[in-house]
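Notebook, student rotation project (T.W.).
Task set for the rotation: take a protein with a known small-molecule partner, predict the structure of the complex, and write up what can be learned from the model alone. Partner molecule chosen: flavin mononucleotide. Sequence and SMILES entered below by T.W., checked by me.
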Amino acid sequence: MALTNYEMEIAIVYTSVTGNTRVLAENIKFVFQQYGISPSLFEASLFPCEILKDFDAIAIATYTWGNGEVPSSMHPIYEAFEQSDTKHVITGIAGTGDSFYPHFCGAVDAFRDMLFVQTTLAATLKVELAPQDTDLPRCRLFVESILKRVRQRK
Ligand SMILES: Cc1cc2nc3c(=O)[nH]c(=O)nc-3n(C[C@H](O)[C@H](O)[C@H](O)COP(=O)(O)O)c2cc1C
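Predicted structure of the complex:
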């Protein structure tokens, strides 16, 4: 595990109503920890948006609401990225959704398009409802993509 040999500030910001996305965020945190990194895990309403720029990397984890929409709890951080100079911040966007709906994980797509412009987007991940054991390798790839980009920056 030679991806990290320096200090890095990483945040995971999630929102969850029924728990699926919270589990996904915790799985992502677990994988970071396997690389010897301790990311800060924030529920979205508790994340201080004014310090967005201070992180080396931020992973967002969101569910999708309405008809493929970003949940209102994620609007503050979404708008903070839109309004801040955060091109230096490495980002990843992950989410859970239900493929029963026409726009599966639409909030992930919306974040992806915005983060691609506003930040250095490294990874996306969509998970069907509650994360399964088979999603752990996908979480690992998500985290590794973020770590590789951070290492290139350092
Ligand atoms: C009213 C409602 C609308 C939803 N709309 C979508 C949608 O458009 N696309 C999608 O992929 N999932 C949709 N979902 C499914 C949730 O995103 C999914 O259950 C998610 O895993 C919930 O995350 P949580 O357990 O972290 O709250 C919807 C769920 C509800 C209840």
